[in-house]
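Pilot study result, target chain (137 residues):
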Amino acid sequence: MKIARIPALTVAGAAVGFAVLTGGGSALAETAVPEPAAQSSTSKAAVKATWNHNKVKGAKSSGTITTKKATGSMKDTRKDGKCARVRVEWWSKSGKYDKDTFKVCGKGKTKKISAKPGDKGNYWTANYARAVTTDTV
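Predicted structure:
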């Protein structure tokens, strides 16, 4: 089982900062992802954080995620006939949910990641820039 951690870069307010630094509260959550057949790395955060998933067999990704936007890059690292995939998910307290998926195929190929919660110009601010998952498909 691998655990991908994303450290908080900036936080607003001492209470939120304390929760992030101590791992308490809902400001920063970490998730362990079981790895049956396909390997993956998952990161969770609320506020602003970075991720660096470089131990997934066949894929790498890194970037920054906030409650308004995710930016980064991804790379297919193996000639295995599979593609690298990154999924970004956001949630709001009002029940809104959005997931964006990016895929790149072919060893050495890279792709930029840029996503916002909401679709087709109907963007919104999430309460949780909740998950970034990197795996192969």
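One observation from the pilot: DSSP finds one helix and eleven strands in the chain. A full batch analysis is planned for the follow-on phase.
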